[in-house]
Amino acid sequence: MTVGVFDSGLGGLTVVSAMLRHLKGIDIYYIADTSNAPYGEKTKEQITDFSIAITEYLIHNYKIDALVVACNTATSAAIAELREKYPHLIVVGTEPGLKPAISHSKTKKVGILATPATLNGDKYKSLVNELSNQYSVEVFEQACDGLVQQIEKGETDTPKTISMLQHWLAPMKEANVDTIVLGCTHYPLVSKTIEKVMSHPVTLVQTADAISMRLLCLLEEKGHINTGEDHLYIASTGPIQSDMVEHILDKKMDIKRISL
Ligand code: DGL
Q1: Looking at the DSSP assignment, which residues form a beta bridge with residue 6?
Q2: Which of 47, 96, 149, 212 has the fewest Cβ atoms nearer than 10 Å?
Q3: Which pTM does this prediction carry?
Q4: Is the beta carbon of 42 within 6 A of some atom in ligand 1?
Q5: Residue 162 Rama label (left phi>0; alpha psi -120 to 50; beta)
Q6: pLDDT the model gives residue 38
Q7: Which fold has domain 98-205?
Q8: Do residues 205 and 181 touch, judged by C-beta distance below 8 A?
Q9: Is residue 141 classed exposed, middle or buried when 0-12, 13-18 and 19+ CB atoms within 10 A define those classes?
Q10: Residue 239: pLDDT band by 50, 70, 90 thresholds?
């Protein structure tokens, strides 16, 4: 099976790395749309246009069987349009793991870090409404403007990134939040920094494993036999830090430059 995966940049590789652990015998074509990053500060219409252009590219060049939107922001903005436009494609999105975070939290105080576009999207708002009617929980939301750019530069632990996180996490620290949702696929790349800044033990929730398991299940329904070698190909629409790619995947990769 051939699977297309995309994100605005490096973040979706945190999903690819989980996919490589769970799925066997697949070809993965990953597109980092760095020329349009960050998505989180763009409009829904812009993000939908980028998502459709990438999907067209993946379908025409690689005849993909499945598409993984490895980006919370693009999922929030465009997943409905993608499903409607490509009904024959398996489409798996990425959503903030708020429900597992609430179940896990003992203090019933849960933090969520995401991009402004994800937190302002209808999808997220209706999820929070639904869950806060069901559970008694206090949710601390924080839009992290500029964090994606820091990560793209490879600045996962520099004084500037630490001070941004100190500012955003202060209310969560004070309120004794014990579980934080990483609502952007870039943010697992600053997990260690978040843990350091929080200073008390905190569980960070990400959904890369759940996405991979969901994809596996949908591929198996279409006859996928989960054995054999995986092949990964990476392309980017703009500059990308190859040492970060190597750090995330734990191996050197050739990165092709494409225009959509
Ligand atoms: N990795 C994307 C996400 O999950 C980042 C979006 C951005 O480029 O701002 O939301």
Answers
A1: 31, 69
A2: 149
A3: 0.97
A4: no
A5: alpha
A6: 97
A7: Rossmann fold (3.40.50)
A8: yes
A9: middle
A10: very high
